[in-house]
Design goal:
Blueprint lengths: L4 E4 L6 H12 L3 E3 H9 L3 H8 L1 H18 L3 E3 L8 H7 L4 E5 L2 H8 L12 H19 L2 E4 L5 H11 L6
Parallel strand pairs: 1-3, 1-4, 2-3, 4-5
């Protein structure tokens, strides 16, 4: 068992929205590893970061990704930092991985880079740029295809993703 499509990319890029649309178009289920973590712990991602710290969250995330990759056959969205783990990147090798990309101005427009994003609590633009400098090569390393989301509707991104993967809609 393996996911049909795995979505990676930064926070706020639209993985959940596009993931739901892809799943609908392809007639498969949708799953998000961040949702899995929230369901398993009964706490929000922000609460886990604040109460337990980033290393504790990353350990939960690593297990959530491993489980979802083994169990889910539809569209799977990973949290923005999931690719930081070398073991996770190894598990993504051979998967159909779509990196949804956006620039900082689009990130500001979409998310406001607000307090709900614990990694961006102080100087959000600078921190987002630094996160992306570290993560972009990892997203690109794991990606089968890259689909830009800047200035595009979720429906346009969904169509571009299906076209890039040469997949037919259900």
């Amino acid at each position: 068992m393996t996911p049909l499509i795995v979505l990676v990319g930064p926070m706020g890029v639209g993985k959940s929205t596009v993931g739901h649309l892809l799943a609908e178009h392809l007639g498969v289920g949708y799953r998000d590893t961040d949702d899995d973590i929230v369901a398993r712990t009964g706490r929000s991602i922000a609460e886990i970061f604040v109460d337990d710290g980033e290393p504790a969250f990353r350990a939960l995330e690593k297990q959530a990704v491993r489980t979802a990759l083994a169990e889910h056959e539809g569209v799977l969205a990973l949290g923005g930092g999931a690719v930081l783990d070398a073991g996770t990147r190894a598990l993504l090798a051979g998967q159909r991985v779509v990196y949804l990309s956006m620039d900082v101005e689009e990130a500001v427009r979409r998310t406001g880079l607000g307090a709900a994003r614990p990694l961006l609590a102080v100087n959000p633009r600078k921190q987002w740029r630094e996160l992306m400098e570290a993560r972009r090569p990892l997203y690109e390393e794991t990606a089968t295809v890259v689909v830009a989301t800047d200035g595009r509707t979720p429906e346009e991104v969904t169509r571009s993703t299906l076209d890039a993967l040469e997949m037919k809609q259900a």
